Amino acid sequence: MRVQSLDLYQYRNIATLELKCPEELHLFVGPNAQGKTNILESLYVLALGKSHRSRSPRELIQFGKQRAHLKARVAKDGQIHRLEVQLFEKGKKVSRNGIEQSRLSQYIGFLPAVLFAPEDLALVKGSPQVRRRFLDMEIGQVSRTYVHHLSQLSKLIIQRNHLLKELGKNRQTYSPLLDVMDEQFVSLAVPIWEKRFRFLRMLTKWAQEIHQTITQKQEELMIEYVPSIQIDDGMRTEQLREIFANELLKIRDKEIRRGSTLLGPQRDDFRLKANQLDLHTFGSQGQQRTAALSLKLAEIELIHQEMGVYPILLLDDVLSELDDSRKTHLLTAIRGRVQTFVTTTNLEGIDSATLEQARIYRVRQGIITELG
Asked: What coarse category fits the chief subcellular location reported for this protein (predicted)?
């Protein structure tokens, strides 16, 4: 799979861009705050229908303009496919081969992508919300039903929280509507848990192998899911449903008092350990970076296993965050297999063999110029 071309119109600080990019490696070089990240972000938006940096489509539109337009031609399975995202002040439209997709779940997955940016180091040392977002974005690329369930769950929790606040305000402890909502809650939460368990099981397999290679077999990486209720990967669907339903009943009075949903997939986390050491609390910066790199490289292998194609890889100013050994391992691992787009402030530390393979661009104030 290859992105053959990328066209942008009024996207962030880029007025227009028409980029032909069938090659394997593309390097975007320039000072900070010139628009390098915007290029990678646009590919991410074309892949997943939304930005990793901004929630509102309005923030992606060039200042003073009313809309933005993103297009890519993708070579996949021997055919050329067209992906388009149109951004407006109050919404967006996504389409594939000229056909608008009414649901994001119908669009995601056609252009799988893995993004590795400096903030991804927060996968290890950041908040549970960061790790949940990682799970949701990556599982969503390989499972359209997961995206649908997650979207429905988010809407349900908003409605449920509103009802819990109303019950607390009126000093009520029972509502038939809450019973109905809890049945829906269980039906949506359980398949999400099952998908997460399966994903982390596969991710752990790949990440362990990669991590051992990077650390020369000095460390064993473990990924441990931390749910908000006492469940585990070995439980059957019926068990998960029964346990969650019972836990919701037990905590109902507390939720009504607080006016908030306290249990469910939206409260979960996962923990990374090296040789049984919790990296979030006790890991050195080097260990945390190695674990984050192992997860990202494992993502590439997992997507290939599940979808039969390698994703595109977006490396946003991450090479400067890695020492020479980790940088070498990253570039060696992707060479010859993965189409890669890299942003960097300079080319120092990138080996000559890599530079010879790359198409290099200078980025200044939103203008992209090919070098050489």
From this structure: cytoplasm
Domain borders along the chain are 1-112+309-371, 123-307
pLDDT digits (tens, 9 = 90+) for 64-103: 999 999 999 999 888 999 999 999 988 999 999 999 998 8
pTM across the whole model: 0.88
Question: Could you give the C-alpha distances from 161 to 263, 268, 312, 339, in angstroms and in order?
Answer: 12, 18, 38, 43
Residues 152, 189: Cα–Cα separation, whole Å: 10
- 243 in Cβ contact with 229 (< 8 Å): yes
Q: 3.30.300.20, 1.10.150.120, 3.40.50.300, 3.30.210.10: which CATH number matches 1-112+309-371?
A: 3.40.50.300
Identity (one letter) of the amino acid at 300? I
- Whether 37 has a binding-site annotation, put simply, is yes
Q: Which residues contact 165 (CB under 8 A, 6 or more apart)?
A: 259
Q: Is 30 annotated as a binding residue?
A: yes
Residue 66 annotated as lining a ligand binding site: no
Any known ligand binding at 358? no
The CATH number of the structural domain formed by 123-307 is 1.20.1050.90
32 is in an annotated binding site: yes
Match 């303009």 to its residue by tokens.
65
> For the segment 183-224, what is each residue's pLDDT rounded down to a tens digit?
999 999 999 999 999 999 999 999 999 999 888 899 999 999
Average pLDDT per 10 consecutive residues for the chain, totaling 372 residues: 96 96 93 94 95 90 95 92 94 94 86 89 88 93 93 97 95 92 98 97 95 90 96 96 98 96 97 94 89 92 93 90 79 86 88 86 95 79
Token look-up 């473990």 returns: 222
Q: Is 296 annotated as a binding residue?
A: no
Distance CA 96, CA 299 (A): 24
97 is in an annotated binding site: no
Strand pairing report for 221-226 and 113-116 = unpaired
Q: Is 62 annotated as a binding residue?
A: no
Q: What are phi and psi of 118, to 5 degrees?
A: -55, -35
**What percent helix, strand, coil does the chain show, rounded to 5?**
50, 25, 25
